[in-house]
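Sequence in, structure out.
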Amino acid sequence: MARLVLVGLPGVGKSSVARAVGARWGCESLDTDELIESNVGEPAASYLRREGESTFRTRELEVLVLAVARDAVVATGGGVVCTREARELLAGEVTLWLDSDDDVILERLDHLDRPLLGERPATALTGLRAAREGWYREVSRLRVDATGTLDDVVRRVVNEVARVAP
């Protein structure tokens, strides 16, 4: 069972936070997009573009199953909650929803390749939030504001997890 699984919209900082929390706790950090990349030999974004969302979500679920079986902090892709099977798996983990205002996320995404945001990222992000927010709530025991410095966010995450940890 993973120590912690992070979910949230693209660009909210899941990967950076997972690495920092893993380092702080002295455990491995895993990123499902990076695991997909190592499995398919190309970046997750180009694999999604080439194969389509359905095939991508199947691959994402496969790597998620492997990732949560490890003693790690796991950063997921923003759309991992789109499949029922992934939501069922995440509900059994200590899952934390990293969230932030869309303006903050858009600023962070400025230089990144995010195929589902297309030519109008602000509009697309609003749509993704509307579609996924209920699922993030469904699978998460905790929700943390990801606004601020990485150190600020890591401190909030560690404090929230300490409140629910056995």
